[in-house]
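Risk register update: the risk of archive-format incompatibility is retired. Evidence:
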Amino acid sequence: MQKKDDQGRYDVLGVNYSQYVKTEIDYIKHWDWGNKNIFALRAFGGIAIPYGNANSIPFIRSFFAGGPNDNRAWQAYDLGPGSSGGRNEFNEANLKLAFNAEYRYNLFGALNSAFFIDVGNIWNVLDIVDDPAATFTSLADLKDIAVGSGAGLRYDFNFFVLRFDVGLKTYDPSRPLGARWFKDYNLAHAVYNVGINYPF
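Archived output:
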């Protein structure tokens, strides 16, 4: 029979193994309004719950927020968890909610543009983290959902699309309540993203 180590965990060949259950739901819908006008919508939800031999999720299996295909007003790994404002260089958690809406239209020729709104955040839930600012304990924590908005240019090379987006922090949950809306809504605090193909 396997014996536990001094931290109460089992191991295989001297390495602690992780046990967790993870699920994700990703919904994407495009409405073609004609004349190269498209409204695109995405909704994502994911959760990973550790159990048994683990009290947290492996980093590579965790969720992160921010970046060119997520909330574009934050750099990748910069958003969250919750209202903590980012505790580490790479911020991750085991619960994520994300919603994106984008209106895409043609400027001329192969050059297109878009306006977008990105909403979402990550939190810790049912794991080892007990920081109230980083954990999701009730629906009241939805007040810590971040909102970013902005615009972008896309050049269609037929075999791929080169994308440039400018994201602005519309609602920043890392700020105190009452001072979260439009406080850094200016180009000096914008996040510039370069990507290949559409974000969703």
